[in-house]
Specification:
This protein is of the alpha/beta class. Helix content is 26%, strand content 27%. Helix 2 runs parallel beside helix 3. The mean pLDDT is 92.
Length: 324
């Protein structure tokens, strides 16, 4: 979401942020929040992203700013969207407004990283997430699986709740076939208030049937498969055919870009996570390390990244890496 404040005589007189999709933009909400509109022509507007210049779900914000004759506009960064890309700045300058671009640009890029990744790299912002045992395994040896088919929890309840919070903050979540067949996950935000992410499932040969939670039609779901036979598709589920003989991560990103998905959590399993790592298509890796030891089992993915921060969640350690 874009953020905007309007300042008059060193005092904030209006502030706003982007409404849910289809609603007013940050600049509109900020201007509407100003009680005395006569102050606007002597005020300065600060906004994290270039005001839009085109008609979409709402009229152009640049036109509204020009209409109220704001004397000065400070913009965090130029909008890379081809419908804007400097056109909003030009509209403001043509209207006689003094425009300064690049205020706290690094901070604004960080804030808008999902939108910018989608526009500049034509793919979602990608977060890899997994939990590994103290000795570096995602899951114990299959012999233990046969004794106890239930999922082996590596992390504590607080870490699990944090993961559900993350799910509410991102647009989609991806898992591979084996993860579904072995764990039957719901991939919802049950332990946090918020919207469920769109479920994205890799299922090359359509091994997953409607008895699994991911195909229960309770949440928008996209299945990526090589089976081009609509008679085998489940009603209410979207299917996208991709070529599993070619690099997958880039094809997944292309498919999700076509579905206007701006951010994605990749939750597993190991093969799926390693696919994104090997193709070097990821932005963050969020890794939990628990205290349990498996001694043998499914090794955690191998990757290289820059450690951004690390913190303890009771007994668990959370490390967040960036792909620089």
């Amino acid at each position: 979401m874009v953020g905007c404040v309007i300042v008059h005589d060193n005092k904030i007189i209006g502030e706003g942020f982007t409404s849910p999709y289809g609603g007013p933009h940050a600049e509109v909400n900020a201007i509407n929040a100003v009680k005395d509109k006569d102050l606007l022509k002597e005020a300065s507007l600060y906004v994290t992203l270039e005001p839009c210049s085109h008609y979409g779900k709402t009229p152009p914000c640049a036109d509204l700013i020009a209409k109220h004759k704001l004397k000065e506009v400070f913009i965090g960064l130029q909008d890379p969207h081809d419908k804007v890309a400097g056109k909003g700045i030009k509209k403001l300058e043509d209207a006689g407004c003094k425009v300064t671009v690049g205020i706290l640009e690094d901070e604004c890029r960080e804030h808008h990283k999902r939108f910018l990744t989608f526009q500049e790299k034509k793919r979602p912002y990608l977060i890899l997430k997994w939990a590994e045992s103290d000795d570096g395994f995602l899951a114990p040896d299959t012999s233990l699986r046969k004794e106890n088919p239930e999922p082996f929890w590596i992390t504590n309840a607080h870490s699990k709740q944090l993961v559900h919070q993350w799910r509410s903050q991102e647009q989609a979540i991806l898992v591979g076939t084996n993860t579904v067949l072995e764990d039957n996950p719901k991939l919802t935000t049950r332990n946090w208030a918020g919207k469920d992410p769109i479920r994205v499932v890799l299922d090359k040969n359509l091994k997953i049937d409607s008895n699994f939670h991911v195909l229960d039609e309770s949440v928008q779901t996209i299945v990526l498969t090589q089976v081009n036979d609509k008679s085998k598709y489940i009603k209410g589920v979207a299917y996208v055919v991709i070529d599993f003989s070619k690099p997958l991560a880039s094809q997944i990103c292309d498919a999700l870009h076509q579905h206007n998905i701006t951010s994605l959590i990749v939750e597993g399993g190991t093969k799926t996570l390693q696919t994104f790592i090997d193709e070097d298509i990821w932005d963050e890796a969020r890794i939990f390390k628990g205290t349990v030891s498996f001694k043998n089992g499914l090794p955690a993915p191998k990757f290289q990244g820059t450690l951004q921060h690390q913190n303890k969640i009771l007994t668990d350690t959370l490390s967040v890496y960036l792909n620089d």
